Amino acid sequence: MKWHKIFFSTFILVFLAELGDKTQIASFSIAAESGNVLSAILGSAAALTAATLMAVAAGHLIARYLPKKVLKIASGVLFLGTGIFILASRLFF
Length: 93
Fold this sequence. Notes:
Helix content: over 70%
Number of domains: 1
Shape: extended
Number of helices: 4
Number of strands: 0
Largest sheet: none
């Protein structure tokens, strides 16, 4: 796959996944409370970058030892399991 397709598909996926999550709420709160927008932007961006670097490094390392098909299935199961857990916790607790 060409680099620009990977870049844009990753950007869109992460951007949509991050909208309205806890990170956005925390960034909103910090910017509102401190009044220092630039520091809030830089701190949030640095934290997201660090977390993403760890995830990409871990994914790259795991991909060396497991076939792509296994990774896709495991990712799907993790996403599905997380969704079921969140839904169940909202409905039953």
